[in-house]
Amino acid sequence: MNSLTMTAVRSVLQGVSQIFFLSNSWTGLLILIGIGIFDVRMATLVLFGSAVQAFGAWLLDAGEEATQGLMGYNGALVGAVLGYELDSWKAGILLTIIGALSCIPVHRLFQKIFALPGLRNAQLPVSTAPFCTVAGLLFALVMPWVSTGAPSSSEEPLVGTFLGIANEFAEVVLTDGWVTGLFIIVALFIGSWKVGLFGLLGSIVSALFLVILPLPMNVDDVSTGLYGYSAVLVSIALGTIFLNHLSLTTRILLALLGTVLTWLVQALLALTVIPVYTWPFLLSTWIVMLLVAETRSKPASI
């Protein structure tokens, strides 16, 4: 392959890896394999969504962001959700094109919002906000044709907890199963051991606490991973991506705070008609980063 083709392939795979804040083509490839084990059509639409958004960004002179995968991961997630919710190849491909391209202006809109004076100091990341916004609108459009299956689960405490930890990684990309989860965990450690460790921190803490705490859910519920996937992302984001100017101890504590917030946000969203997707991760991350920015902006008392 020539250099242009290799660059394009790397960009698309890095678009997949950026779902977990990594710019690593091998990580992206392993995540795709993990998704493919769950559903080949989903993996195809994930790859296609990343490619469509990257190509659209390149046409709009956002080539550097596209090369790093920063204009691909939201399109990849749009492809994942459409592959999960729709049985039709034609509808999946068409809506992935529309959704992935729509993520580009939505991305720019969030960048402009976060550059406003009241928010600028917090340096809030756009992250998966375009995906959540676009996919939410698409969900309203395709709701009559949505077809989904039940996630894997277990009522046995040890098996259920392990399955829950693996499923929390898998559910980030709307897949299911311990094999897919393990593929993603390995992929993250290949990209960055810090990302892998903080991802496991959020996942393990979420799974264990949701099992132990007197909440209206049991091991069977927790084992699906549906209540902890945002904890994986928020722990990575606050622990090793956006707040690296803080001490390790502070970042661990903030990652744990963010994990707790994801549970609260998800519980509130469950009371609405809004698809949850990764909103709990996003809102929790933004809240913590705004609190950190506010604390830093206050003059020290004498």
Automatic annotation (TrEMBL):
It is found in: Cell membrane. InterPro entries: Ammonium/urea_transptr, Urea_transporter. One of its GO terms (cellular component) is plasma membrane. The chain crosses the membrane at residues 12-35, 91-110, 122-146, 172-190, 197-215, 227-246, 253-271. GO terms for molecular function: urea transmembrane transporter activity. The keyword Membrane applies. Gene3D superfamilies: Ammonium transporter AmtB like domains. Keywords: Cell membrane, Membrane, Transmembrane, Transmembrane helix. The keyword Transmembrane applies. It is a multi-pass membrane protein. Belongs to the urea transporter family. This is Urea transporter. It comes from Rothia amarae.
